[in-house]
Known about the structure:
By secondary structure, the chain is mostly helical. The protein is built from 7 helices and 2 strands; from the N terminus they run αααααααββ. The protein has one domain. A two-stranded antiparallel sheet has the order 1-2. The N and C termini lie far apart (36 Å).
Amino acid sequence: MTQPAMAMALDYLRHFPAEAARAIDSLPEAEIKSYLAPLEPEHIVPVVNALTPMIGASVLKSLPHTVQRLVLERLDSGRAANLLGSWMRMSVTLSRGSCRRSWPDS
């Protein structure tokens, strides 16, 4: 993506996070992450809030731990719980009859 196009996309994410989230929700997760990477953490919160739970959880999981914590602290507690539940469903793997989970760092 060209620099002017990326600048315009970032402005859209900052100023219209719910609309931007609906537009990027169907993109590959790697592409969503590339849009969010240059954003300040306070601008990531409303975007993650508006993404579908599984995509939001995947994006949240890819963020640095300090940003994960900030996002979760700023979300409504119900929405944070919903994202963490989706994170858990994504992270549970069955291996030789045992269950391993990947928990967010505290």
